[in-house]
């Protein structure tokens, strides 16, 4: 995937989902227990992102969002055949999780494939094991994957070309999801593992 394609893809979602900094500055934070942890705001509020889904885990078992989000989760949408962005982002997310574990925080990371044609449970298990032993890999039918992507306002589109070695354009945000609470924040590609770990820790502390 080219840098230009990534920028366009991310920009589409950025315009649709992320509110401007000026908007954030004018909002009351009195009712937001996580206000001190946020780096930006979400247009329409955090309730506009996330929701129920049904996918298939690495063991071929159908699971729901409630089965997956049993602890604070760093969530990313991508695909295993991705030549550059997905491996880098997943490693960054895994590094952030390792930092959190070193600090005594109980969290996890999950990777949802937007390429269910190639990303079988077996492929997902092999891929996630490269980054962190506890990274959760999720795939499913095209309909299941689309429903999860729509819930989290992500973008993806299969490119025309070779039927076996095709690429998929996709957005590159990483999400932070809490059990029972749901989506609470997002991370951009230029956020470092240290910055992510600091913010996730802030959210966990604020949640009590």
UniProtKB/TrEMBL annotation:
Disulfide bonds join 82-86. The keyword Membrane applies. Cu cation binds at residues 82, 86, 170. GO terms for molecular function: metal ion binding. The chain crosses the membrane at residues 6-25. Keywords: Copper, Disulfide bond, Membrane, Metal-binding, Transmembrane, Transmembrane helix. InterPro entries: SCO1/SenC (IPR003782), Thioredoxin-like_sf (IPR036249). Signal peptide: none annotated. The keyword Aminoacyl-tRNA synthetase does not apply. Belongs to the SCO1/2 family. PANTHER family: ELECTRON TRANSPORT PROTIN SCO1/SENC FAMILY MEMBER, LINALOOL DEHYDRATASE_ISOMERASE DOMAIN-CONTAINING PROTEIN. This is Protein SCO1/2.
